[in-house]
Amino acid sequence: MTATTHPGASPYKALARPGRIGSLALPHRILMGAMHLAMEGEPEFLPRLKAFYAERARGQAALIITGCAAVHPAGGGYRTFCLTDPAHRSQLQAIAEAVHAEGGRIALQLFHAGRYAFSSETGMPPVAPSAVPCRLTRETPREMSAAEIAETVACFAEGARFARAAGFDAVEVMGSEGYLLNQFLSPVTNQRTDAYGGDLAGRMRFSLEVVAAIREAVGPDFPLIFRMSGDDCMPGSTAWEETIAFARSLEAAGVDALNVGIGWHESRVPTVSAVVPRAAFAPVAAGVRAAVRVPVIAANRINTPEVAEWVVAQGWADFVAPARPWLADPAFAAKALSGDRAGLNVCIACNQSCLDHVFAQPPQPASCLVNPRAGQEALWPQAPAVRRRRVAVIGGGPAGLEAARAASERGHAVVLFEAKPHLGGQLRMAARVPGKGEFYETLRYYEEALRRHGVEVRLACAPDAAAFAEFDDVVVAAGVEPYIPDLPGVGLPHVATYAQVFADEVPLGERIVILGAGGIGCDLAHYLADEARPKPEVARFYAERGLPERTVPRHITVVSRSDRVAAGVGRTTRWVLRDELRRLGVEIVTQFVPEQIVADGVIGTTPQGRRHLPADQVILCTGQRPAAGWKDRVPAGVRVHVVGGARDARGINAARAIREAFETAYRLGE
Ligand code: SF4
Question: For the chain, which has fewer Cβ within 10 Å, the N-terminal or C-terminal residue?
Fold first, then answer.
């Protein structure tokens, strides 16, 4: 559903101002940053891509930047557009036409992965400035010859020429995130001794030749954005003074705007995950903006209109280019500009259905945890259901909320029953974990959506069979409950479940052993360890008054039966979580098979023999099982649809729960 813009109605005045990138006039300051969706280039996915981009154009993105399009086959990959393929060119043209049909504007991103290309995907060895092994691909690239560099420069120019001919409104050259042009700029990956290496002039030569060649190919008026790296977040990489000198050189070479990217895929600094504070890297864009006169674009954890407004109003950037927030809500700009902040579905930076899909092996099409329709708009068109049903939803956790939202959006009359006095279920639990506070946005969004769609919410109720007799369909989204293992001592008073701890039902101990090192166990350890630290304002107060820092005494041990820790957590955030636990001093014990919980700890076996882990509190994160309390209460004769953890608790997470709920609710009344 697309919101309507009412000129002058936006509370975000800086965002609402028209802007310009070279010759391209833009109605406001919110662009849509490039996203690779792992659907590109396959003919069967073209309708989905067209629908995806068209919906974001209807959502009033001032300018959409496509996902990457490789200018040379060596720089592409699996399900990636490659501009040397005529079929891919016509698909891209069709996407541009779909965006234009909605009144939108679209820029083509010109890309070469360099040493980030996987030979298993391209069928050829990866190339790079120098043969420096790559941690991302676990391959060592081949050094490019001068002739290959010249060929690649020509490929960028040819890509831009195609973009203009195909009707694109601009091009963006990908020169950040550790891809080929960034690799040439960085001394970490550029160890050449020829004209393309050595000092800054040598290392930036490739990028400047690309810009010059594109200008030559498309003329002075075709808008050209360069996505440069503001900070590689890599030890020994390009220095800040060099970054600024590079920005100035790009401006002198004729770029119309600089989009400031942050971090490499090999970097150990999180740049887009939820532990990164909102707009944390906007000051980097501000530093670039202070050095040039062309417009500067900021991104990275700019996920709400008020954060975007702050960045632009502060003069830190001329435009913002959020990417994932457009997956979470295809009407991001339309809602911001019309002042409908309450209706915005906010990206929670979880990466679970977007980056974790795209970086899976093999890659999976990107979608969104909080908007499972993302990337599948063509499969689930927004239209009323054929037959209007009376629908009961049991459970007010993520699956129940989504089932109620999706069913009511399709025109069904929906009543949601929740046993607790509030909505949210596991969303509330997750929101307490450091960096996951964004889940409160998801809960807020659902509460607003249910209110707008007229869903009747009955809290603190346990309806009997008679209550369901009036419904055509019952969606059971009752969720999960902790699994209690059959372990001696499990009933001792100092043993609790993770659910009891998150619900504040038990006082916390000082020496805590968490049984289970899956996602919940690690999240719980993160939460408990972080809670014991002084809050930033308290630490600052102590420091300003010369008081010694005080920390709450708490020692946390997380126990895994195997070698695996945080195994169920997605690839792009698992390392961040493990780093956080290490940083906070959480002890991890692997290959520990618990035998017995005793008054002063846990006894178990390890490959080295029996071991006693001292504890004054033991918390069970030993799995989950479907909540079963609803089974006796649904009468015969009513269609029952069980979704999420209530259907299958194994490996359940919010992404699966919400997706199942959406698909089930969408099909009601078909
Ligand atoms: Fe944002 Fe998570 Fe959706 Fe990705 S899956 S767009 S990170 S909410």
Answer: C
| CA–centroid distance, residue 445 to ligand 1 (Å) | 14
Integer Cα distance of 157 and 65 in angstroms? 18
Q: Which of 59, 654, 64 shows the shortest CA–CA distance to 367?
A: 654
Q: What percent of the chain clears pLDDT 90, i.e. is strictly above it?
A: 89
**567 pLDDT band (50/70/90 cuts)?**
confident
Q: Which two tokens stand for residue 147?
A: 């002739």
> Ligand 1 centroid vs 430 CA: distance in angstroms?
15
The 3-state DSSP composition of the chain as helix, strand, coil percent (nearest 5) reads 35, 20, 45
Q: Which residues are catalytic?
A: 179
Q: Do the Cβ atoms of 164 and 218 come closer than 8 Å?
A: yes
Average pLDDT over residues 130-138: 95
Kindly report the CA angle at 236 between 233 and 241, in degrees rounded to 5?
80
Question: Is 130 within 8 Å of 196 (Cβ atoms)?
Answer: no
> How many whole angstroms from 515 Cα to the centroid of ligand 1?
29
pTM, 2 dp: 0.93
Longest dimension (CA), the chain: 82
The predicted pLDDT at position 325 comes to 97
- The CB of 328 under 6 Å from ligand 1? The reply is yes
CA angle 278, 282, 285 (to 5 degrees): 160
Question: Counting atoms of ligand 1 from 1, which one is nearest the CA of 371?
Answer: 3
Closest CA to 272 of 583, 655, 578, 572: 572
Residues 390, 401: Cα–Cα separation, whole Å: 16
What are residue 228's DSSP bridge partners? Answer: 175, 260
